Predict the 3D structure of the following.
Amino acid sequence: MPESRSRKKKAYTPPPATPRAKQEGNPRWLVPVMVGLLVLGLLWVVVTYLSGAQFPVPGLQNWNLAIGFALIIAGFILTTRWR
């Protein structure tokens, strides 16, 4: 019975060691801006309710609520980038 040929190289060659990609953290501005937008939006809505929709911008009346909620939503959108 014929013999099989021997292998010329090892059966498994591990891949070359490559440095791992550095995990990126948060940009320095992300957390302060995120918290600032959330707090500013909350304050905007509270002031609007307490003043009967006359402040922070007198001419906008109930649109002040939309501005406050837009600030809060922008803050929540930034939370999705937080790592």
Summary: Helices lie at 30-50, 63-79.
